[in-house]
Amino acid sequence: MSFEFNGKTYETDDDGYLVNLDDWNKDVAAYIAEQEGVEMTDAHWEVVNFLRNYYQEYSIAPAIKILIKEMKKMFGPEKGNSAYLYNLYPAGPALQACKIAGLPKPTGCV
Amino acid sequence: MAEPAAEKTLLDIITEADTDRNVKGPELTGEINVPRVEEGRIVKGVLSGAKPYAAKPDMMTALGFPDTLVDNWEEAAVKRLGELLEKYKSLQVYLDICVRCGSCTDKCQFFLGSGDPNNMPVARAELLRRVYKKYFTTEGKLFGKLAGAHRLDLKLLGDWYAYFHQCSQCRRCSVFCPYGIDTAEISMAAREVMNAIGLGQKYTDMTIGKLLEIGNNLGMNPKALVNTLESIEEDIEEEDGVPVKLPLDVEGADILLVTPSADFFASPHVESLIGYAKVFHQAGANWTLSSAASEAGNFGMFIGNYTLMQKAATRIHNAIEQIRPKRLVVGECGHAWRIAYSFWNTLIGPFDSLDPKYPAPQHICEYTYDLIKRGAIKLNKEANDEFTVTFHDSCNVARASRMGNRPGGQFTIPRELIKASCNKYVEMDPETTKEKTFCCGGGGGLLTDEIMETRVAGAMPRMQALHAVMKSDGVNFMALICAICKAQFTAVLPRYGVPMDVAGGVHQLVGRAIELGAKE
Ligand code: SF4
Ligand code: SF4
Ligand code: SF4
User: B345: Cβ–Cβ under 8 A, 6 or more apart, which residues?
Assistant: First the structure.
């Protein structure tokens, strides 16, 4: 599968996740977010950037607990929790945040 | 812009889906009503379009299957089925002895939840039985359709693909069949035949591929695993002020813990991992995880493939050789425990190097239970006073294994653990627990989002039974001992209007209640 955006073809998996990590850029991320009905704020971008940096280092998305711990550092204790994460990405970190960050969908028994 | 119209292959046609992944569950009433024809609730083929994604060519070849549907697929399928009949006598018996008594018809959660008559276990089995009759029985060869025989044509293969992926291989039907016919085994065989002709299911095949390539279902490499475990240690120390460790690859450790990789990654799974670590810590155990055996799960079983099951299990054998533990303990995972309990000995045994004083393998629940009985760890039930707890028996643990040295230990031990960890425990309707438990609806390779319609339907009976105790007793925590159950309920509860954090692990409760620190 694939989609066209700004004159470029983006290859995706069956669920619309980018296949190539390097295809990602802020514009296409914003476009995917729009399709998901997510309006990107600074907080959204910070989560996305953390996911991408983590993936680049470890070849896998961070565990939810690691992501939330990082959010605590970024946004303070009030917002470092899963309620705030789901507030940013209502369909959840795996389904929406990873998709917008251009990471593959985490699978397994999760 | 539209994609260029590629010509559809036969594989595309067979796997073409028509399903609603945004589906919500029906209203919860606390009653499990069997669909009835009179009420118009039995609708033929209503889930015929709920088909999972097909495996991609690279995923197929990685497992040794043809990359796509082979040209002579009918012939190849019959050949593979013939081989399976030779190899597994039970399969032939199950196909021969069904008397169509009907006892199993209303016992499958996927029928109860969907009203699709093809999800009656006898009807599901019939999809394969027709083909068996056609090619392997005299009456079928002579009388064809009159004898219920049918060739494996494109339409029937499409139905195989749909309905053998609406069976979680939970074996509930077999409990009610007077002949003990196990439809789970029939669905495993059907999936093995489909893979052998190049028709695989993406979720399962991709997951097996990751396990073989990277070492676990998640695809978490050792570097990421180290980072994750360190992060969890930090969390525990910050929260409890006690340096509880999650050791990795410690050669010579007494206990090797093998657990589903989801425990490292997902929530609520990780809370149980923390629970195991606290138990080991407080017991003063010298234990370790292994990066080579960083997965207890083994999806090879879901596709009935012995070779792949063995390959996956060999990693555990290798870890034992490397670490030389005295004991082998398995974390909370339903199908993994079935495989560990029933197949590890054949696949990778005998476990001669382990200490014969202990069961090999041993379930983490049994391990913890022994410590409690001996007074070696102490639990403070008040720590869980915010919860009224119930327990969902995982089908694979309930019906395909045991725990401890007494019959029924797989039922009593997890319950005893929960009761030792909290003050308020409530049972669900006994028609839905222990050996009669329903599957969560996500087992057997169905835990993938494109078939959410199947998963929501399959969860219905458990959701109704849960709702009943939520209403009557204020239950707000359903304890689980299976990674798939945890993921499935976390996804499905909200679709029934129930908060996702009602689902949690048994060792999550233990971990909250355990008293850390110096013993009196
Ligand atoms: S094994 Fe379970 S899911 Fe499969 S037909 Fe029987 S009851 Fe249904
Ligand atoms: S209960 Fe057993 S014998 Fe009766 S219809 Fe079902 S599978 Fe056949
Ligand atoms: S996920 Fe849990 S309930 Fe479902 S098949 Fe596996 S062990 Fe059974």
Answer: B351
Residue B168 · residue B458 · CB < 8 Å = yes
Query: Are B479 and B389 spatial neighbours (Cβ–Cβ below 8 Å)?
Result: yes
Domain-embedded: residue B2: no
**Contact present, B495 and B28 (Cβ < 8 Å):** no
Note whether B265 contacts A58, CB cutoff 8 Å. Answer: no
CA distance A5 to chain B (A): 9
Is B465 part of a structural domain of the chain? yes
Interior angle at CA B484, CA B294 and CA B334, nearest 5: 75
Residues of B in contact with A15 (CB under 8 A): 449-450
Number of domains in chain B: 2
The range of the structural domain enclosing residue B138 comes to 33-38+47-200
Pocket test for ligand 2, best of B105, B126, B181, B186 (most atoms within 8 A of CB): B181
pLDDT value for B1: 44
If asked whether residues B275 and B397 sit together in one domain, one would say yes
Residues B376 and B505 in one domain: yes
Residues near ligand 3 with C-beta < 6 Å?
B 168, 170, 334-335, 394-396, 439-440, 442-444, 482, 484-485
For residue A93, the domain's CATH number is: 1.10.10.370
Scanning the structure block, which residue is given the tokens 């009985």?
A: B373
Closest residue in B to A107 (Cα–Cα): B218
A63 domain residue, yes or no:
yes
Torsion sign over Cα B296, B298, B301, B307: negative
Q: Which of B460, B272, B217 is nearest to A110 (CA)?
A: B217
Residue B2 has pLDDT above 60, yes or no: no
Q: How do residues B424-475 score in pLDDT, each as one tens digit?
A: 999 999 999 999 999 999 999 999 999 999 999 999 999 999 999 999 999 9
Tell me which DSSP letter residue A90 carries: T
Q: Do A109 and B333 touch (CB under 8 A)?
A: yes
Looking at the annotation, which residues of A are catalytic?
Answer: 109
Last residue of a domain, one of B163, B179, B200: B200
Give B394 Cα–ligand 3 centroid separation in angstroms: 5
Interface predicted TM-score (ipTM) over 0.90: yes
pTM recorded for the entire structure = 0.97
pLDDT at B214: 95
Arithmetic mean of pLDDT, A26-52: 97
> Using a 6 Å CB cutoff, which residues line ligand 1?
B 107-108, 110, 121, 124, 167-173, 183-184, 187
pLDDT at position B5, please? 62
Alpha-carbon distance values, A45 to A41, B291, B339 (Å): 6, 33, 43
**CA distance from start to end of chain B:** 71
- Tell me the shortest Cα–Cα distance from B495 to chain A, in angstroms: 12
Beta-carbon contacts of A58 under 8 Å, excluding residues fewer than 6 positions away, are B221, B223, B224, B227
In this predicted model, what pLDDT tens digit does every residue of B91-147 receive, in sequence order?
999 999 999 999 999 999 999 999 999 999 999 999 999 999 999 999 999 999 999
Confirm if A69 and A80 have CB atoms less than 8 A apart. yes
Cβ count near B357 (within 10 Å): 8
* Number of structural domains chain A divides into: 1
pLDDT tens per residue, range B311-363: 999 999 999 999 999 999 999 999 999 999 999 999 999 999 999 999 999 99
* Among A50, A46, A75, residue whose Cα is nearest residue A62: A50
Quote the tokens at residue B15: 């796997």
Predicted local distance difference test score (pLDDT) of residue B517: 85
Residues in the ligand 2 pocket, defined by CB under 6 Å: B 98-104, 121-122, 177, 179, 181
